[in-house]
Amino acid sequence: MFDFEATEEQKSLADSARRFAKERIMPVAAKCDAESKFPMDVFAAAHELGIVAPTIPAAFGGGGLSDLDLTFITEELAYGCSGITTSINANTLAATPIKLGGSTEQKKKYLGWLTKEPILASYATSEPNAGSDVAGMQCRARKDGNDWVLNGTKCWITNASHASFYVIFATENPELKHKGIGCFIIERAQKGVSVGEHEDKLGQRASDTNTVMLEDVRVPAAQVVAPPGQGFKLAMETFNVTRPDIGALACGVMKRAIDESVAYAKERKTFGVPIGQHQMIQQMLADMAIRYEATRLLVKRAAWGLDKGIRNPDRLLVRQGLRGRQRHANDHRRGPDLRRKRLREGLSRREADARREDFANLRGHEPDPTVGDRAKHVGVKSLHDRRPAWTALTFQRECEFSVRCACPTAVSLPSVPEQVLVVITIKKLQMGATPLSIHVAVDRERALQLPVVQKPQW
Ligand SMILES: Cc1cc2nc3c(=O)[nH]c(=O)nc-3n(C[C@H](O)[C@H](O)[C@H](O)COP(=O)(O)OP(=O)(O)OC[C@H]3O[C@@H](n4cnc5c(N)ncnc54)[C@H](O)[C@@H]3O)c2cc1C
Question: What are the structural domains, with CATH classification, of the chain?
Answer without folding.
Answer: 121-233 (2.40.110.10), 313-357 (no CATH), 365-458 (no CATH)
